[in-house]
Design goal:
The structure is a single chain. The chain contains eleven helices and 66 strands. It is of the alpha+beta class. The radius of gyration is 50 Å and the shape is flat. 35% of the residues are buried.
């Protein structure tokens, strides 16, 4: 019996050892891989894991993409470099191909899954991953080079520290399990390379926070008379200021709005804005303009700048709602109610309201705004991925509404951690925002192991740097309180749950007094990563055992949030923090959240240096015109209002510009042109300012956008020179060759002519204008020249002539200068003949006629022009162009000739034009003739049995037709023919001789007369047709001719009669014999 028990125990021990070994293997395998998420979006997920093997360091990269519809198709592009920027050797992946150091998907599809396994030498511990996602363009099915991810920097893939530190020798299963289970052995550092809270471990704070959202639409300027806008407008009735036109950033760089003048005497908030972010929104995200106007003083000018915002900005905003679902959210005691409602009910209602506001202002699934959420209590209850879809936003609300609050504490840090994971999953330059909604301070946290001194962290002034490995919340024995000094009804009345942690900076250990320390440390990490945090707190009651005062609890909450710009204090109002004590507070707070999300200009800055030749006259002012511009509906809050910085008299600077929903600011100031300066030139344009820019959101983007800079001048001269353009030989611009010209006024300087001013002459100003006033000193010699691009004459016109080649103020004609341009023309002719090379000499109405059309304007130049007696067709006075010659009337019997082209072009020296064509002579081909012979009896009825032969005199045509009653001879060319009836029908008399038929080159035909013939000629059909009717008379009393059909009929009839007679005789003989 004892022996059997011993055997049983041995077997049991072996089984137990085997199971322990297997468990150890599983634990070890799990520890060697560590999945890190790089991109986690609805349309793309990219992650990787690492493993240390005997072969080397293994990186496994997994990619999954899926469009929201089958119609949307895309493809991935990857480039993977080592730490020394060497392209790796890519593995063979089905559906992908290597091209120019990139690994590309071969086809555009709506979804795909890939896994790359890369084995590197053990010394290679990092990889750089560049990734693009190209969407297929409907206009270009071959693909699109537009990368919708916009990741400017590579993502860094690193071997996990636990992998690289492993000993190559196998460790026992028990020790592995022990290491994994011990919470004190492995600490977790927010700043270490193993930090799984920052899945984009290769992305720095600055690369997340800053990027370019817009392409600057740079204004351009001319320098021919000072410096002034190339694309310009001037206030109505004002000539001494010139401003830059407005435009849109989705137009070409040289395309502006074209508005050249408007009335500035009344407020106008429509004209001359430069719009940025145009595309999905017609008026873009941002509109800005700058312009100058004259004042009562000739040397002083008003300058005005406008900046308008809209809802949302490129590249977009990511919002994570972090929603408290602790048990106190549904307490029914009056202390916890808000206007008689449970906190959870009010929170859900407010969340629904702000989501509906977003829906009303942002198109579904556009991508500008993505919303996600975290619902937390004692742990993370639910997470909603960032999405631009209305349906996903509604699902977020539903998740929050349906989440049970039973027994849940407040693990605020956990909610922030989950939000951090979602927001930092992509490095796309988007604005990242957390909206924290909580009903009190935290009472659950991760357990810290190390930290460093930081006065900004409340209350203990300790910034946590390391935690135990677990992310689960821990009450830390606080019994539901925030403070770790826990009040108690027992003795002693205060239980000290505080503890110390390692000082990461060395020295005395640091003391942790409150859950607020962990929550504030986590929030600080998020803010350092470029994430904004705003919070709404419902009440401050911490319960009967809370050691912190209500003021401390509130401070601990608002210190988690982002401090408002341009504030230096440390009070509640200096932070993006809101207390909601009633429903109105809730509405106001959520409205602020809504407005903050849609802001397109945030903390913007205008830099506006003065021009070298101007000085500031009075202090600039800024005002809110949101309710005056016709599109804004809400004034700018006082704490968000722009501020003028007047510290530099040579620069106008405006800061703290915050705009959304068509809010607009207006800056006004006055400058004076320094006319007393020795370098001042009367009439010359001087820029009112240097390069003027708007930094849109300097905390988040690198966007710097240009204003157009106006120019001003002062004119103290009185010699005005009119100029007029005359077009000679070109009545009413029939040919459409006139062009706008620039008349340039020049002043003689020694032997050189120097440009002073230029004006445009065009149809709009009836080809008249005048130059700006210049000095009337009679010793100054002037002249006017014409300029078209780099030429001094209009193409297709002769060199211009001027009413005066040069002049002074004392001898200028009272009408000014007249510039005359004569249209250059020429003639074109060709010859029209028949095939015998002779011209048509018939009457004019029967000769061929031609029409000439100018092809560019489809202009009919000349119609129905006939050749003269020599066959010459002539078109006169043709300017440069391409013309089409068409035969519009064809003589009877002839084929229409093909259209042909005539080109009239300038001579190389510009002294005239010449007409050229490959066609010099056109031959009218005669249509083929055919002869139709119809055989009738003397009653006019067609009869058969005849045969006709037609031959020509040269012997080249000889044809006989012997069937039917109609005989058609085709392919007849001009010449003499003879028609003969070679066989007449039986009992008819045929033609007794050949009939002569003649066809002539001019399409005429003659038929010899004969008493049995009638004839006609038709020249209007596809073929020329001669019709001849031959009438035969019947012949009476004549025996059939030998061999004729009549003879055959006679013999046949006789034979039939003989057979019948013989038969009847035989029958008679037989009957008679039988009777006898």
């Amino acid at each position: 019996m004892l022996r059997r028990k011993l055997q049983f125990l041995i077997v049991l021990g072996v089984i137990f050892s085997s199971l322990t070994g297997l468990l150890g293997v599983r634990t070890r395998t799990f520890a060697e891989t560590n999945t890190k998420v790089l991109i986690d979006d609805t349309f793309l997920n990219v992650s990787y894991e690492t493993e240390l093997t005997e072969e080397g360091n293994v990186f496994r990269i997994k990619m999954k993409r899926e469009a929201d519809s089958e119609q949307k198709k895309s493809r991935l592009k990857l480039k993977i470099l080592t730490e020394s920027d060497q392209v790796i050797e890519y593995p063979v992946i089905d559906g992908m191909e290597k091209k120019d150091d990139w690994l590309n998907e071969k086809e555009f599809t709506s979804s795909a899954n890939y896994e790359l396994e890369i084995v590197l030498p053990k010394k290679e511990k990092k990889l750089k991953l560049f990734i693009e996602l190209n969407e297929q363009n409907e206009q270009n099915k071959n693909g699109s080079d537009t990368d919708i991810l916009g990741l400017a920097e590579p993502m860094l893939l690193e071997m996990d520290k636990t992998d690289s530190s492993k000993n190559s020798k196998k460790e026992s299963a028990s020790s592995s399990a022990s290491d994994a289970d011990s919470p004190t052995v492995s600490s977790y550092s927010l700043y270490s390379e193993q930090n799984t809270l920052s899945p984009l471990s290769g992305i720095t704070t600055s690369s997340l926070a800053r990027g370019s959202s817009y392409t600057n639409k740079a204004p351009s300027y001319k320098t021919d008379n000072g410096e002034y806008p190339q694309y310009s407008w001037q206030p109505t009735g004002q000539t001494n200021v010139i401003n830059h036109q407005g435009g849109k950033d989705n137009a070409a760089a040289n395309v502006w709005d074209g508005v050249q003048s408007w009335n500035t005497s009344t407020d106008n908030y429509k004209n001359s804005y430069i719009y940025y972010g145009v595309g999905e929104k017609a008026q873009g995200d941002i509109a800005l303009r700058k312009y100058a106007t004259e004042t009562a003083k000739e040397d002083e000018f008003n300058v005005r700048l406008n900046v308008r915002g809209d809802s949302l900005t490129k590249p977009g905003v990511d919002v994570m709602f972090v929603l408290d679902n602790s048990a106190s959210m549904t307490f029914t005691e009056s202390t916890y109610l808000i206007s008689g409602k449970q906190r959870k009910e009010v929170s859900v209602e407010s969340l629904k309201k702000v989501i509906n506001q977003f829906k009303s202002n942002v198109p579904d699934n556009l991508g500008y705004l993505k919303i996600g959420g975290v619902v937390f209590g004692s742990e993370i209850i639910s997470t909603s991925n960032l999405s631009a879809r209305y349906a996903d936003w509604d699902q977020l609300v539903s998740k929050y509404q349906s989440a049970s609050t039973q027994s849940h504490q407040t693990y605020t840090q956990g909610g922030l951690i989950e939000a951090q994971k979602k927001l930092l999953a992509t490095n796309d330059g988007r604005r990242k925002v957390i909206f924290l909604l909580t009903d009190g301070a935290p009472n659950s946290s991760r357990k810290p192991t190390a930290g460093k001194s930081d006065p900004a962290i409340f209350p203990s002034q300790v910034r946590i740097t390391n935690y135990i490995a677990s992310e689960a919340g821990d009450p830390l024995q606080s019994n539901g309180s925030t403070s770790l000094y826990v009040l108690s009804n027992l003795n002693p009345p205060i239980m000290d749950r505080t503890f110390t942690i390692t000082n990461a900076g060395g020295g005395t250990p640091l003391k942790i007094n409150s859950h607020l320390d962990m929550a504030n440390s986590q929030a600080a990490d998020l803010r350092d990563a470029g994430i904004e945090i705003q919070a709404i707190a419902m009440g401050t009651y911490g319960g009967p055992l809370e050691y912190h005062s209500p003021a401390d609890l509130i401070k601990g909450l608002y210190k988690m949030t982002t401090q408002r710009s341009n504030t230096t204090g440390s009070s509640e109002k200096d932070y993006y923090f809101y207390q909601a004590k009633d429903l109105k507070d809730f509405d106001d707070s959520f409205q602020d959240w809504f407005e903050s999300t849609l802001t397109t200009v945030e903390h913007g800055v205008i830099e506006d240096p003065l021009g070298d030749m101007v000085e500031l006259v009075e202090t600039p002012t800024v005002k809110d015109v949101s309710l005056k511009n016709g599109v804004g509906t809400k004034a700018i809050d006082a704490d968000r209002m722009a501020i003028v910085d007047s510290s530099n008299s040579r620069k106008v600077k405006v800061t703290n510009i915050n705009l959304y929903g068509n809010q607009e600011i207006e800056i006004n100031y006055k400058v004076r042109l320094k006319t007393e300066d020795s370098s001042f030139v009367s009439g010359k344009w001087y820029p009112a300012n240097g390069k003027t820019t708007l930094q849109v959101s300097p905390d988040r983007t690198t966007d710097i956008l240009d204003f157009g800079v106006p120019s001003v001048r002062a004119v103290n001269e009185d010699f005005v020179i009119p100029v007029k353009k005359v077009w000679s030989n070109d009545a009413n611009n029939r040919w459409g060759l006139r062009q706008e010209v620039r008349a340039v006024l020049q002043r003689k300087d020694g032997t050189q002519w120097v440009d002073l001013h230029e004006v445009s002459l065009n149809e709009k100003n009836t080809w008249t204008n005048q130059f700006p006033a210049v000095s009337g000193n009679s010793t100054i010699e002037y002249r006017v020249i014409e300029r078209i691009g780099d030429k001094n004459r209009v193409p297709s016109y002769a060199n211009p002539t001027y009413s005066q080649e040069s002049f002074t103020s004392s001898n200028l004609d009272s009408a000014g200068i007249t510039i005359t341009n004569r249209l250059l023309t020429t003639d074109f002719s060709f010859k029209k003949v028949m095939e015998n090379e002779q011209p048509f000499t018939v009457s004019d109405e029967k000769r061929p006629k031609f029409t000439l059309t100018e092809t560019r304007k489809n202009l009919e130049v000349a119609k129905d022009v006939a050749p003269d007696n020599e066959g010459v067709v002539k078109f006169t006075n043709l300017p440069a162009g391409i013309y089409r010659v068409s035969e519009t009337f064809v003589p009877e019997g002839f084929k229409k000739c093909d259209d042909f082209t005539v080109v009239v072009a300038e001579r190389t020296d510009g002294t005239g034009v010449i007409a050229t064509s490959t066609i010099k002579t056109i031959v009218n081909e005669l249509k083929e003739f055919k002869l139709t012979v119809i055989k009738t009896n003397d009653q006019g009825t067609e009869i058969e049995g005849a045969a006709f032969r037609l031959r020509n005199s040269s012997g080249t045509y000889n044809k006989t037709i012997s069937t039917g009653s109609t005989f058609t001879f085709t392919g007849l060319e001009p010449g003499n023919y003879f028609l003969k009836e070679v066989t007449a029908p039986d009992n008819y008399i045929g033609l007794d001789k050949e009939v002569a038929i003649s066809i002539f080159d001019n399409a005429l035909a003659s038929i010899e007369t004969h008493p049995l013939l009638t004839s006609s000629v038709d020249l209007n059909s596809t073929e020329n047709t001669i019709t001849v009717k031959v009438k035969n008379k019947r012949q009476f009393g004549a025996l059939p001719k030998t061999g004729s059909f009549g003879n055959r009929y006679f013999i046949l009839a006789s034979s039939i009669c003989l057979v019948i007679g013989s038969g009847l005789g035989a029958i008679y003989w037989y009957v008679d014999r039988r009777r006898g």
